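Contributing new records

If you add data, match the layout below exactly. Sequence lines come first and carry their own label; structure lines follow with theirs. Keep one chain per record. Anything else will be rejected by the validation script.
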Amino acid sequence: MSRSALRRRAAVVAAVGLVAVACTSKAGGDGSFQASASPDTPPGTSPGTSSGSPSGSPSGSGSAACPASYAQPDPHRPRITLTFDLAADLASVHGTEDVTFTPDLPVRELVFRLTANTPPTVRQGNRIEITAARSYPGGGAYRFQAAGAATGTQGGLLVLPLGRQVPAGQRVSAHVEFTLTLGTRAFDRFGHSGQYAWWGSGQPLLAWERGVGWHEEPLLQYTAESATSEAARTDLTVTAPGKYTVLSTGTQDAPRDSGESGRKRWHAVADRARDVSVVVGPFRTAKATVAGTTVQVGTAPKKAPQRLLIEAERGVRELVARYGPPPFGSINLARLPISGGGIEYPGAIMLLDDSRVVTVHELAHQWFYAMVGNSQARDPWLDEAFATFAEEEIDGTTSVTAGALKLPGKVGDSTTHYGRNGQAYYNTTYGKGAAALIAARDAGPPDKFDAALRCYVNANAWRIAKPADLAAALAGLPASIKVLQDAGALPR
């Protein structure tokens, strides 16, 4: 789902008896980034010094050669420093964001997505308000664009003028201050309930895609992701009541006293995160090491976390066997006191349901969305269909995909194509999309499809992939490509 995303609810498709699980996703600094090891660097990798696909990559070329490992992230990726200060009543968050960004195209402004102002999110009592913002170079007052946001909010996009055209390759920076209001017990990436608070995509999200520019698609009229963001080097600090545990994106340090009575400060670093999430509550935690990555789960105090940890370990092992090493040095899964599914973020998952199918689906998003990125507005199937496909491949589930290829609609349609019809989005993007991938694998044949998919993952790691990248990886499998074309996933 996504990163700007938000997701997870069960979508029932009466016509074919499907049940689709919705997911969410869906990403400071001073500018002169020096590549160095990070606690959140994926196991067996280095921070990297080159961008794009490695030599021999099939991405965009149709080459039969296959990269042996994940492509390295862009060394000039954005640097983001975030602070979140959670109120004692858990109902609001004061935040700051500092961004240093080196565009690969000329720019005259900076554009940030205000996910919390999505209409269904606002109806549930959530919202974001910008209280201060400035950029360097500066070019006048910041402004807002409605871009589908709920009425009564500042808008869906924050725009910071730079005052002149800044050439490609020249760093720009911004400082933003904001307040998040958290609704109560809603199925969403924002909320608070009892002793728990949670938010994902809570900061203004830098809406850039390399080689494309700014993403200014409208916020959605239904609960799903519609964001696009580059993997960024992110430093995160959360201040919260000291009696609670914080689980977030990034590899976390031990908590420290904040200097305020009864409050603690939690710090985490994510070397390459498109977005972040934070969950706060009286969690009972357990952790294990799987394929070099720390997997940690948090459950309610009276519920033993071992069962969820066993499911998470199993899910990671199965996904590693199919797609490669875990993309992050740590993955935190937090079980929230509401129901609906799950919402994925890089290195962190909000679980609104801890069933096996939801756990696997959200973990699969660590590969499809968090590492192999996509525009969740333009090409939502590139993460949601793949996560649902992985869930069926691992567990043999058929509730989502049985009969789904017969559904109307094109798998490759954008989120905005569906207007207010979120049900049709879930049916087509999740159900028909996963069914098309299963049929494409069967046509492959399966072993060659699996190998081509592994090449696609390696070549497009830490990039924002497009359908053409998948088509290039499958270039030697015309039967698979035809299946995906017939389903409207790939263009003819």
